[in-house]
């Protein structure tokens, strides 16, 4: 009998693994609906939907392994990272899905959220003021108009699987929708700047590296307190706080 593995769990959602089956339980039915629709439309390999019974969704495991994880060593060849970049480009070039975008990632909403979060990080003594101030300045480059693309929305390195130099599956589509394509690229390379050039070589043209680096600051600034409050370690080597320090 396979054991039940808790992949991730917090107050909003949980993912369990039993053998080759993943069961996702989500408090927001809209996220489950968006995930299933996005996977049906995305022109990249996605998990097979085994069954769906709100509030749960069962998915088959995809073959292969991830390219690494945030805070850990990266694996895979430069060619595998480039293949991931090419797969991301196919997604971004696809027709926009009939899904809502994230209004909280619009420039004006982000600017307000960043200002509030930066103040909270300093006032509560979570991070030094100079670190927060420097990264808030870097983040400004991301706060610009962008042309929406079909984005994954949470394209962490752990969500992309490869076998050799081939992408075998991209998982966790609950935040998919029209969005800034450079946000996807920044999320994928967060904490693994050494592979950014490989990803860019596969992705192709249309990349502003300063904007990608700005999104690293945005994502990290907004994530630190949430991660700490939900039992994750943003201060672990290679994770969000180290990403912020690298901008100094």
UniProtKB/TrEMBL annotation:
Where the record annotates domain Aminoglycoside phosphotransferase, the positions are 19-203
Do you know which Pfam families this protein is assigned to? APH
- The organism's superkingdom is given as Bacteria
Membrane spanning residue stretches: none
Q: What is this protein called?
A: Phosphotransferase
